[in-house]
Write a structure and sequence with these properties.
The protein is of the alpha+beta class. The protein is built from 13 helices and 15 strands. Strand 11 and strand 12 form a beta hairpin.
Length: about 525
């Protein structure tokens, strides 16, 4: 396979030769047109000379026409004037007012009868103007110019001058010999053109070679911190380098997220697996009593349930990343759903020693998946209860606007530091890792990531406001049914999620979704 530089060299050389051929053809066409115009000028000059000679002779008293003895032969031009007109080049014909030929040049007299009739008939119908006409005869093809010499009110001479067009050729007479003479120089010309093309293509592709070398140096995830050097010019290669840098930056972010995800998932699975192993070994011990075996198996079952929840959450996010998770959207009333969530929140809060308030519960219709929206609301509620100390308050509200509806969960808990806000939607992230792992209801750090995906899958947003030590406020905004952004209208719809992966930094740290 030839390189791009070689293909460009061949293409440029071929284009040069084609351009040279077209230019040569253009020159030949221009040459022919110039020769035709020159011939037209000569024809007009010939006609003007004949007219001027006849007019001068008439005005000086030297009448150029004399009558013959035989009146049937018609008038004839004088011998002196005839000698002068015979010096003119080409075909010259002079006729009187009656159409008799009073002078015909030797070229006209030498024509055959048919060609002379064709020349005379064309001359008679030609108008006396500055235009030239082409007369096609068997023996020749000529350009004809017509003039008139007024003698009196009713009498005048007509002068016809014509020149042959044989000299107007597309190729010069010695074109073939000239081409043969200079043909040995053609390979040298092609070689010079190819050399220039090769050098120019090499200089043009030199920055591309540098980009290739720099990209080849970035061969694994450990070298993704490197960036391509940007040139000072704002050309296509500089834009390519900038695009590649942005691509490498996204790769670096994705690799980092993948490493963190792998480490966090391994850590989350390591503890329950260790506990399960210990419980199973204790249950299999021959000295263990029936009660001890039952307790060990019960603890192992709890760890299995914990791992099943983790795997289910990871599977949900993985399907969302690949766009294979279907969200079934249908018109639903959020009022009853919010009331159900409030009742569940009060049950959970009673055990945690918290108060749950719901001052505003408006009703609103949205297009959504009731199961996923319930999961979204409960994730926010359990998160608020988890991080709110005893005696605190969790406030839920569902407020309808003109085009959208807002579900708000506000708590008086520990809050989130401003430095941690950009990361709260990252997977396995927790505001207080020590507290989360020690808590009986400690999660995996996947709830907010799933909640954000559910909100985005319903064409909505999930926003957070928080201050350390003063609590947090999570707000879900969903478009009302029938308004722009709400999706399709109808009885039942299946919409496939096509959102960007939640590991994308643009999805995890979108300024429009996070306010500090």
């Amino acid at each position: 396979m030839t390189s791009i530089r070689t293909r460009l060299t061949i293409a440029w050389t071929a284009a040069f030769l084609v351009t040279l051929a077209v230019f040569s053809l253009f020159l030949l066409v221009v040459r022919r047109e110039v020769m035709r115009r020159e011939l037209q000028a000569r024809v007009q000059a010939e006609a003007d000379l004949a007219v001027r000679a006849i007019d001068v002779a008439r005005k000086t008293g030297m009448e150029p026409v004399r009558a013959l003895v035989d009146p049937l032969a018609g008038p004839s031009i004088g011998q002196r004037m005839s000698s002068f007109l015979s010096l003119l080049e080409g075909y010259i014909l002079v006729q009187d007012s009656t159409g008799y030929d009073i002078y015909a040049s030797p070229s006209v007299r030498a024509l055959s009868a048919s060609d002379r009739d064709r020349f005379s008939s064309t001359a008679r119908v030609a108008r006396p103007d500055r235009a030239s006409r082409t007369v096609l005869m068997r023996a020749d093809q000529v350009l004809l110019a017509t003039r008139e010499v007024p003698l009196s009110e009713n009498a005048r001479y007509r002068v016809y001058a014509a020149l042959s067009t044989r000299g107007i050729t597309f190729l010069p007479p010695d074109a073939f010999s000239t081409v043969v003479q200079y043909l040995p120089f053609l390979p040298f010309l092609v070689l010079v053109a190819a050399m220039f093309a090769w050098v120019i293509a090499g200089r043009a592709f030199r920055p591309v070679d540098r980009i290739i070398d720099q990209v080849e140096a970035i061969t694994d995830g450990r070298s993704l911190h490197r960036r391509l050097a940007l040139g000072s010019s704002d050309d296509e290669l500089a834009r390519l380098s900038a695009t590649l840098n942005a691509f490498i930056e996204r790769l670096e972010t994705s690799f980092g997220a993948l490493r963190r995800f792998t480490a966090d998932a391994s850590h989350e699975l390591k503890t329950p697996l260790a506990v399960m192993r210990a419980d199973i070994e204790r249950a299999m011990s021959p000295v263990a009593s029936s009660d001890e075996q039952a307790m060990a198996l019960e603890e192992a079952l709890q760890q299995v349930k914990r791992m099943a929840d983790l795997v289910d959450s990871l599977l949900t996010l993985a399907r969302a990343d690949e766009g294979r998770f279907e969200v079934y959207r249908e018109p639903i009333e959020l009022g009853p759903l919010a009331a159900e969530v409030v009742e569940t929140a009060r049950l959970l809060a009673e055990e945690a020693g918290l108060d749950v308030e719901a001052p505003v519960i408006d009703n609103a219709e949205v297009l959504g998946d009731v199961t996923r929206l319930r999961q979204l609301f409960l994730n926010l509620v359990t998160n608020a209860i988890k991080y709110t100390p005893r005696g605190g308050t969790v406030t839920l509200a569902l407020e309808r606007g003109e085009t959208d509806v807002h579900f708000t969960v506000r708590d008086t808990g520990i809050g989130i530091a401003a430095a941690d806000l950009p990361y709260i939607f990252d997977r396995f992230w927790r505001a207080d890792r020590v507290r989360s792992r020690a808590s009986e209801r400690g999660g995996f750090g996947l709830g907010l990531a799933i909640s954000q995906w559910i909100a985005q899958a319903h064409s909505g947003t999930l926003e957070v406001q928080s201050r350390l030590g003063r609590g947090s406020t999570f707000t879900v905004t969903l478009p009302l049914a029938g308004h722009p952004g709400s999706g399709m209208t109808g009885e039942f719809h299946s919409v496939v999620n096509t959102l960007p992966p939640l590991d994308d930094p643009q999805a995890n740290a979108n300024p429009a979704l996070i306010r500090s």
